[in-house]
Amino acid sequence: MARVPCDLRFLLIPAAFMFIYIQMRLFQTQSQYADRLSSALESENHCTSQLRSLIDQVSTKQSRILALEGKGIAKLTQGGQGPLAAVVIMACSRADYLERTVNSVLKYQSPIASKYPLFISQDGSNQAVKSKSLSYTQLTYMQHLDFEPVITERPGELIAYYKIARHYKWALDQLFYKHKFSRVIILEDFFDYFEAAARLMDRDGTIMAASSWNDNGQKQFVHDPYALYRSDFFPGLGWMLKRSTWDELSPKWPKAYPYIRLSISMAMRLKENHKGRQFVRPEVCRTYNFGEHGSSLGQFFSQYLEPIKLNDVKVDWNAMDLGYLTEGNYTKYFSGLVRQARPIQGSDLVLKAQNINGDVRIRYEDQAEFERIAGEFGIFEEWKDGVPRTAYKGIVVFRIQTTRRVFLHKREDTMKHSGGNQACFVLGQKTPSIRDLYSLGHKLGQGQFGTTYMCREISTGREYACKSITKRKLISKEDVEDVRREIQIMHHLAGYKNIVTIKGAYEDPLYVHIVMELCSGGELFDRIIQRGHYSERKAAELIKIIVGVVEACHSLGVMHRDLKPENFLLVNKDDDFSLKAIDFGLSVFFKPGQIFEDVVGSPYYVAPEVLLKHYGPEADVWTAGVILYILVSGVPPFWAETQQGIFDAVLKGHIDFDSDPWPLISDSAKDLIRGMLCSRPSERLTAHQVLRHPWICENGVAPDRALDPAVLSRLKQFSAMNKLKQMALRVIAESLSEEEIAGLKEMFKAMDTDNSGAITFDELKAGLRRYGSTLKDTEIRDLMEAADIDKSGTIDYGEFIAATIHLNKLDREEHLLSAFSYFDKDGSGYITIDELQQACAEQGMSDVFLEDVIKEVDQDNDGRIDYGEFVAMMQKGIAGRTMRQSINMSLRKNA
Fold first, then answer.
1. What range(s) does the Protein kinase domain occupy (predicted)?
2. Distance, CA of 150 to CA of 133 (rounded, Å)
């Protein structure tokens, strides 16, 4: 036992050596890390020193800018009198434009600089603009450096719109909140006017802002330099704004302003923002516009901006009594002027107005009629939030022949649906009875809104087609406006040989009747298939006619928006080239540069920019290119089993030139198709360029050899399936009962929880949740944007019905079953060729090639169509038309 401690000591010796060794290694490691840490700290101190140096440099520069601002403000406000309003000139990268603007403003601002301190706010770091700004000693320079990346909200939007919107918000925040100005004027030199307007705004809280602009300020429409008016909507240029108004608008400031002159214009034109308040503007402008490229990207410069008359009369606005502009006085004053004017109506309004010695007034009923009248006179046609943009309580005033005023005022609303539409005048006036002029014959076709008949003119015995539209089916004001616009466009295009000619429009308590040229030769594809021999040259001759229609429409300011083969009919059976375009239900008038957002048309033919909600007339050329591809190959270029699949293919834009029959098609034909189906609208051929292409022009290079017989076979199948789908959609459309419409009305009331007459985003979201929807917020916003036709930010009753009625019909099982049962006459559960023949006879459609209908839809090859096959067909490329967009009557006569 005594040897044990000794043994332990011997064991401790190596343990001690091991401990010493470990300590030494740890010390070495710590020394190495200490050295590294010391080096890192030295490097960090060096970086910190550099960073502090940079911060000091930036601070010095910022201090210089602040000193310049302070110096400028001190100099401009010397004299003891406080400023009335700051005047700010927005600048970016155009030094020459800036110089002309500043010199113009200084000419009027210098004598009263203390009242109107002048600022330049530069967005960016363009050195020429900065140098020019700093060369002026009479103003204060501000610089906005925006390095934040821009993410656009819509495909195709310009980043510049977002940058400009940020700049405006930054500049206004600086002037109102940093420099504490009570008012800000953008750009203007109309200082006496703004001083008088400032007192008026302080006196009358119903005036939201004052502008020195008049959208109808062209020299031919103005006369009185002393005249001022109230306006429902904010003119987009030359305005003065109070800080209290900016307090309201700043939190709601939009991220971009893509379709108007200034972001603030959009913000203040929305009902929820202006809250019934109005604006003051002069008859004769005092707003400068120095160049085309500085004006809404050059849009409408020559027509609306360049002819603007500037007020060069010295007016002592402060000595004038502007009390007549206060809310209570102005309504009486202005309505008195309107009542005293002589009413005129009918046609040749311009001539009538010019031949009357005194003021005149003209009534309009809706947007379409206002735009027609405005177009005749040449005044600004834009429509905002349910009334003309230039209006006061719906009344637009301008001058003709120097002194005489013309008042365009709204009629009483004739489209109140309390007792139905039967007593309403859709056409705006009483017309002769159609039965006094025509005798109606047999039915030619059945459409969603009514029926097409053959009719005979009693006085001449000539035959026409009469489209009778059921008025009770026009459930919203938009439906009515679409009918009017279609009639107006048909009259506008009258005279072109390949567009169906309208004879007249008539109305009775139950129907609107449109009498037009009878096209009894059948559809385009049917004629091609019947003739048998078919070549590239024949296709070139046909597409020349179709593109000729496009060129004629565009030259007259009309975009068709729904070109497709079934909308081209032949006048008779003998002439293969008596082709006529029909169905202008989706057509609209357009102005150069105007952008449209509503998605319309048919899936196979729709252009990619239409799907992206940013398009113009170039979309018609794309559609014609799709038709040409089908004419040459027998199939559409963008094909899929579902509608979404077709849209995806359209957006990708890949064109198949490898499959049959393309190896045998001429290179010239492929070149033309590429030019027409270019995904970039700006690079796409115009209709005029298409007509000058070597493949299409007279004595062109299109070969006359027969195309592959498979092309005709494909055309037969494609045409056949479309015909069955057309019939099915008509049956579904007709199946929507008045009870179901009433149900949609109750749904609207349930969602409109505050009984305002319009559904907000939050109300729509909550309402959809109650009805079991699982849509995401982004999807609900897309739905709201699509439904909000007038872009007011809310959905009114008419918009709600128009948006839901199509989904209500096509997504509900009972409607698909109803349509299937319509064809399945014997209730066997299958649609046979005999039943298709019977349905064609009832619908007034040609029954040729019904074998191809069965062949195309019949997936199990049993010679008939079951319900599953029918539904699959209906879900493949359903046309995206709402009820209000779908005035698509057949003008066909049995072959």
1. 438-696
2. 27
Position 204, amino acid: D
Contact 895, 616 (CB under 8 A): no
Q: Identify the pLDDT of residue 689.
A: 95
Query: Can you tell me which residue has the tokens 């002048």?
Result: 118
Q: In this model, does residue 292 exceed pLDDT 70?
A: no
Q: Is 558 exposed, middle or buried (0-12, 13-18, 19+ CB in 10 A)?
A: buried
Higher-confidence residue: 485 or 29? 485
pLDDT beyond 50 at 416: no
Query: Which residue has better confidence, 549 or 345?
Result: 549
Task: Determine how many CB atoms are found less than 10 A away from the CB of residue 152.
Answer: 14
CA distances from 44 to 36, 38, 41, 51, 57 (A): 12, 10, 5, 10, 20
432 or 879, greater pLDDT: 432
The segment with the largest mean pLDDT, out of 226-240, 245-259, 638-652, is 638-652
For the record, the structure tokens of 92 come out as 């970016």
Total residue count of the chain as it appears in this document: 895
Percentage of the chain lying above the pLDDT 70 cut = 68
From CA 32, how far away is CA 35, in angstroms rounded?
5
0.85 exceeded by the pTM? no
How far is the C-alpha of 785 from the C-alpha of 798, rounded, in Å? 15
Instruction: Report DSSP state, residue 824.
Output: -
Is residue 482 very low, low, confident or very high in pLDDT (cuts 50, 70, 90)?
Answer: confident
DSSP code, position 685:
P
How far apart are alpha carbons 5 and 21 in whole angstroms? 25
Does 704 qualify as catalytic in the annotation? no
Tokens (6 digits) for 184: 């800000």
**In sequence order, what DSSP letters do the residues of 638-656 get, joined into one string?**
S--SSHHHHHHHHHH----
Q: Which domains does the chain have, with CATH numbers?
A: 70-325 (3.90.550.10), 434-476+491-516 (3.30.200.20), 524-707 (1.10.510.10), 725-884 (1.10.238.10)
Residue type, 275: K
Task: Tell me the pLDDT tens digit for each residue of 599-617.
Answer: 888 888 999 999 999 999 9
List of residues 6+ apart from 75 with CB closer than 8 A: 137, 138
- How far apart, in whole angstroms, are the C-alpha atoms of residue 225 and residue 100? 24
What type of residue sits at position 201?
Answer: M
Give the β-pairing of 463-470 and 438-446: unpaired
pLDDT value, residue 757: 73
27-31, 82-86, 785-789: range with lowest mean pLDDT: 27-31
Q: How many CB atoms lie within 10 A of CB 151?
A: 8
Q: Please count the CA atoms within 13 angstroms of the CA of 51 that sit on its side-chain side.
A: 6
Annotated binding site for ATP: 467
User: C-alpha distances in angstroms, 635 versus 333, 550, 608, 717?
Assistant: 65, 22, 19, 9
The single-letter code of the amino acid at 398 is F
Q: Which residue has the higher pLDDT, 133 or 202?
A: 133
User: Is the CB of residue 630 less than 8 Å from the CB of residue 714?
Assistant: no
**Angle subtended by helix axes 618-633 and 667-676, to nearest 10:** 150
Residues within the annotated binding site?
Answer: 467
Give the pLDDT of residue 383. 80
Strands, sheet with 396-400, edge to edge from the N-terminal-most edge strand: 342-344, 360-364, 404-410, 396-400
Task: Name the catalytic one among 204, 479, 526, 562.
Answer: 562
**C-alpha angle 301-307-312 in degrees, rounded to nearest 5:** 130
Identify whether the C-beta of residue 426 lies closer than 8 Å to the C-beta of residue 480.
yes
Q: Rounded to an integer, what distance in angstroms lies between the CA atom of residue 123 and that of residue 127?
A: 11
Tokens of 97: 């434009």
pLDDT digits (tens, 9 = 90+) for 435-460: 889 988 887 876 666 778 899 999 99
6-27 average pLDDT score:
49
Task: Name the DSSP letter for residue 811.
Answer: S
Strand segments, DSSP code E, in 36-177 are 86-91, 118-123, 140-144
